Amino acid sequence: MREVLSSPTDYYCESLAPIDEQICVLLSKRKVLSENNPGIPSLELITAWCEQYKLNEDKTWSIFASMCNDSNFLPQAQIEPAEFLRFVPIMKSVELDNIFYAVTYMRQYKNASVVSIEVELNSTEEDIRLEHAGFELYISPNYQCRSTRGGGGDKGIQHSFVVTPSLPDDLTGVEFRLTIRPYSDYEKRKIALAKSPITIK
């Protein structure tokens, strides 16, 4: 059964309804035109649009990132994996700028697959770490990928995605496209403490 969503606010400006309906119309057109694989506009385009229409660049980028895979907007119920079948090793990886990205394995269920992805910083330096970020997975228009959990330490991050319908055990030729959305405000919240004695009375 589809989960009933609740509004985060008690207020809605009813005069926005025609505009919000048009947003839904454009989302539908976007999905059809892109065949459920729109990607993300370049940063140059987003910056230009934000300057023209006086929009927040980080927020606008996050909106397009959330629409990277238009299958997220298909009318599908959220499926929870049920009836575990087996583990399937995958071990596909690539290194980019001293960072390893690997699809390590998946857990096969009767109604879905759960794909595990690991990101590891290839460095022995102790004073650097991976920044926090959001992860999105795209395989093809035939599959819906939903992030379920993530975590890690300074130099390693793990993420799991529920993929429906189930992937085949043989993934020869299958590509996993990972979109990473850095949390741009995260570093802004860090404040260096003063290197001096502190007296609390």
Describe this entry's structure for a reader:
The protein is α+β, with helices and mostly antiparallel strands and 201 residues long. It folds into two domains: 51 residues, no CATH class; 99 residues, Conserved domain protein (Immunoglobulin-like), CATH 2.60.40. The protein contains three helices and seven strands, in the order αααβββββββ. It is globular, with a radius of gyration of 21 Å.
What is the strand and helix layout of this fold?
Layout (H helix, E strand, L loop, with lengths): L16 H18 L8 H11 L3 H10 L17 E13 L2 E11 L3 E9 L11 E6 L5 E9 L3 E9 L12 E6 L19
Order of helices and strands: HHHEEEEEEE
Averaged pLDDT, please? 79
Distance between the termini: 58 Å
Can you name the CATH architecture of the largest domain?
Sandwich
Look at the helices and sheets and give the structural class.
alpha+beta
Descriptive tags:
five-stranded antiparallel β-sheet; 2 domains; 3 helices; two-stranded antiparallel ribbon; Immunoglobulin-like; 7 strands; alpha+beta; 201 residues
Q: What's a quick, concise take on this entry?
A:
By secondary structure, the chain is of the alpha+beta class.
